[in-house]
Protein: Cytochrome P450
Organism: Variovorax guangxiensis
Amino acid sequence: MTNTSPTPSAMPADPVAAATHADPYPYYATLRDGPPLAWNEKLRLWVASRADVVEQVLQAHGALRVRPAAEPVPRAIVGSPAGEVFGHLVRMNDGAAHQAHRPALQRALAGLDMNAVYASALQVAQRVPRQQPLSDTLFSMPVQSAAHLLGFADDALPQVDRWMRDFVACLSPLSTLEQLQRASTAAAELMARFEVLATGNAPRHGTLLAAVLAESAGGDALLSRSLLANLAGLLSQTCDATAGLVGNSLIALMREPSLRPSARTRNGLQAIVEETARHDPSVQNTRRFAAEAVTIAGTDVAAGDTVLVLLASANRDPAFNPEPDRFMPQRERRRMLGFGHGMHACPGQALACTLAAASLHALLQHAADLDAQRLRGWSYRPSANGRIPVFH
């Protein structure tokens, strides 16, 4: 696939394929014109595409869960180190398990000085070698910046980067057995390193790790291991999702030369990244699984049913954002659902956008000609929900 807009005959095959389509947004518009909650026979699930319906789904915490009741951890990784980490993640759990560490993570993240985070992330991103392909640099810059923020030493950052790239494979239903095995090896290594950071010498002052541990004081050993898994999970969220945010922001600059002067300032970069998160988000969809019968937008959803939640479509709903198809960095009252909504809203939204803005800054300092790159084009990595460009 290329970066050219598709013709009507080249619409995505289905709402999942839309995530990696050249331009899924006309297709999403057709879905919003349909039923509030539509049954897709091919995928055997319900599809929510309108902003108001997406909000209803994301707020139905009791009935609609983030994992199937019978499979809290994917079968392919049950009993493995990757499965242990997955099972502890607050974003993959509901109820008491979800609340165990979320407040501490929220408070620690809320206490970050984003100006200091930006300055630190920019320094780390500037040190990432330029010899690797641009598409790999999209991952390395934010992951290494987040690892530094969590307290890893500078000489450990490239290895943490490699482990995290391996670990995130356990989060994808498209991963091969070999990728899942590498993910478990990486999970075990990451947990061991986090344990050393947390229980060895006092974590470096000012790190996110120190802040999280301070907010979590009083937890027992079991709780602490679960907390460490969530630190690994926080790092994993800066991998695919933030890489896509950086790459899609770069594409916005390629498509809209008029944006480039604003990219010379930190505030301008931040605005471009935040509008990209709304206009062309890296997380296009998520799923919810009915633990009990529930009615959404007048439609009865049976226990055991799955709802595909089209976050990217909701962001472009004209009832949610005026002139939704225009890329407007200075948009007033920007609204987006790509970072979730309600109980499972991502507490790291500000951090993700700051890391992405710093990474974009570093890329633009040394990037090749944006117009030439636009002519070379890009495609998207295979994914069921992520929109991460691969530059040609």
